Amino acid sequence: MQELESAGLDLSQVQAAQEVIAKVDPNREMQKLAKLRIETLIFPEQGYPKLLKELPDAPGLLYIRGKILPEDEIALAVVGSRKFTSYGQRAVEEIVYPLAKNQVTIISGLALGIDAIAHHVALEAKGRTIAVLGCGLDEVYPVNNIRLADKIIASGGAIISEFPLKTASFRSNFPLRNRIIAGMSLGTLVVEGALESGSLITARAAIDYNREVFAVPGMIFSETSQGPNRLIQMGAKLITSSSDILEELDIPKRQGYVKSSEIIPDSREEEILLKLLGKPILVDSLIRQSRLEPALVNSTLVMLEMKGMVANLGGTSYVIKGKLKENPKS
Length: 330
Fold this sequence. Notes:
Layout: H1 2-6, H2 11-23, H3 26-35, E1 39-42, H4 50-53, E2 61-66, E3 75-80, H5 86-101, E4 105-108, H6 114-124, E5 129-132, H7 146-154, E6 158-161, H8 173-183, E7 187-191, H9 198-208, E8 212-215, H10 226-233, E9 237-238, H11 242-248, H12 251-259, E10 262-263, H13 268-276, E11 281-282, H14 283-290, H15 294-306, E12 310-312, E13 317-320, E14 323-324
Helix pairs in contact: 5-6, 5-11, 8-9
């Protein structure tokens, strides 16, 4: 428990991790994961999705097939009805294709209908796409989309879940899945959905996380348009083209920031500490491993945090916020 707490997990996340550990044989589980080429990410270790770290209820553990990359910080969630119309399909094609071409990662839930269309369109644009499942990664649901999941992984994208292997697709899992979809994205686009659909649950999660909500308007007599139309009445931004989203999220500027997020130390002390901050570490350990004076370590950490180069994960735990540029002379 102390090791989990020192990694930066809060009490609820520690308890959740302990419950998972109590239910499975860790060694056997790791063997299964390796066989299926599934990796794990523990909050808040390096590589854990940056936007997801901001959630008050971020998953303590993520299972991943494929790769999550730094550029996936520029992501849009696209969700909608399983019972889509030709209008909804065309809206996804017209809006998502240019976004994927503009290096916006498309995140959805691999469900039948709008979700699957969004993944397919992103793949057609040779862009990145990530699917979040409401079951274990060895139980891809729906089974009709198993080949789609394989295509996403083969393209360089990923399928992810917070649920252990052999977890079935229980109805109660999907609101939890939807919060991850919203939490990994700068905004959520709703394309068709009834008033009580899962799409609106995802939109509500986006609102709770202070993320943007976009909606494609539809005919007032269509049941599948009731959800997006209601969201627009509540303040969601009405979307008619990809440029609406690119401008609203200021994507070009954000992409420039991500590309320039390579960390360059300004002093020998900063370089020493940054090399040790590749994964979360406590200040006491940092002092011991760096062999620098405690006062110098503390003052350097303050400067690094002010420069946006490191993040305080709570208490006295720190981690680097980008990739350290290698010094050819070192």
